[in-house]
Amino acid sequence: MTPETENAFAAIRSDHGAESLSRVERMLEPGGGGARHPLQKGARWILPGLSPTPWHDPRAHPELLPVVEALESAHPVVKDELKSAWTVRRDAFSDYEHYLTRQNDWQALHLYRGRAMTEEAAATVPTAYKVLKESAVDTEKICPLLESHFSTLLPGAFIAPHCDLWNFSINLHLAVDIPDGCSLTVAGETRTWEEGRCLLFDYSFEHEARNDGDRPRTCLLVDLWHPETTVPERRALDVLISEIRRMMGEG
Questions:
Q1: Domains assigned to the chain
Q2: Would the pTM count as exceeding 0.85?
């Protein structure tokens, strides 16, 4: 760790207790804090002690339930605004750039990234913008290291199997516009989206998605803190990953 990270960790321990960062410290040890599931081996960091559960019930975590309910309640208006944006504001969408690849058949309209709401989205998709801000951003449930965006897979698009970088955030999908023939596979189990409802999964497990339908498939994706992480751990992980990115020249 850098001196900046060590100082930040010391301040967190002072506020929350000497053992408050024990799991983060174990994660940084050689071997990554212990054994991991075989289908998590592509992830860079695994915070030990989190339930190794690929699929989560989106209604099972009290911390996340208000986000789920707010998004699902807003779905009809969110879908109408998304369709309008796709028709008349296509320039607001861009090729999605994952840390592994970039795909022109995977389009994204960002609502949150770079630790802030994307102001351009306020006029384009105002309901989704408002619900996301009030339920996830203002409440600090969103992981500021990541983002929220409308994720649109064009017909025939396929996202190859991969693991995301870590397990201490979790991926929430609101199914906005779902044609027949779409699927999401996480840790070998394939499910589909139910329009207007949320799916929740741990994307440190290998996962893939496809659209074999005849029109675009769109979900609203929100990267939330894993509900089993603690406030001091979130503070430390934010500092740690931000410092790593700074050292790598990623801003």
A1: 56-225 (2.60.120.330)
A2: yes
